[in-house]
């Protein structure tokens, strides 16, 4: 598998995991921002702050891609996925009839 194909598969996994985590945790993120806002008399309005950490093994034939979200310095959620770079080489079940 080419380096470009590997890159695309890893990025696809990262984006999908990030989106799923953010969609799942969105209400908690909003609530945490609102709760923090109530405790901070200097804040003009609630602000959501989300950090994402992404980690994967760059050289493995299949790699665990991990995505972690943290928000409001109190909460976190994680996701991981195995990306098998060799899987795309097989054309099982693929109809190649013109």
Which tags fit this structure?
alpha+beta, three-stranded antiparallel β-sheet, 98 residues
General description of the model:
The protein has one helix at 3-39; strands at 50-55, 62-71, 75-84. The chain has one domain. The two termini are 25 Å apart. A three-stranded antiparallel sheet has the order 1-2-3, with helices on one face. The protein has 98 residues and is of the alpha+beta class.
How are the elements arranged and paired?
Blueprint: H1 3-39, E1 50-55, E2 62-71, E3 75-84
Antiparallel strand pairs: 1-2, 2-3
Provide the residue-averaged pLDDT: 82
Unreliable sequence segments: 90-98
Number of domains: 1
Helix proportion of residues, in percent?
25-40%
Count the beta strands: 3
The strands making up the biggest β-sheet line up spatially as 1-2-3
Which radius of gyration do the C-alpha atoms yield? Answer: 19 Å
Q: How would you sum up the global shape?
A: elongated
- Listing every helix as H and every strand as E from the N terminus to the C terminus, the arrangement reads HEEE
**In terms of structural class, how would the helical and strand content be classed?**
alpha+beta
Tally the helices. 1
Oligomer: single chain
Distance between the termini: 25 Å
| Major sheet attributes | 3 strands, antiparallel
Strand percent estimate: 25-35%
Outline:
The chain has 98 residues and is of the alpha+beta class. It has one helix at residues 3-39, and strands spanning 50-55, 62-71, 75-84.
């Amino acid at each position: 598998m080419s380096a470009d194909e590997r890159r695309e598969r890893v990025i696809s996994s990262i984006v999908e995991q990030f989106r799923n985590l953010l969609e799942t945790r969105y209400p908690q993120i909003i609530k945490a921002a609102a709760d923090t806002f109530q405790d901070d008399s200097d804040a003009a309005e609630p602000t959501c702050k989300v950090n994402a950490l992404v980690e994967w093994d760059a050289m493995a034939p299949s790699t665990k891609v991990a995505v972690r979200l943290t928000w409001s310095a109190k909460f976190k959620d994680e996701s991981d996925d195995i990306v098998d770079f060799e899987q795309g080489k097989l054309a099982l079940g693929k109809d190649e009839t013109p």
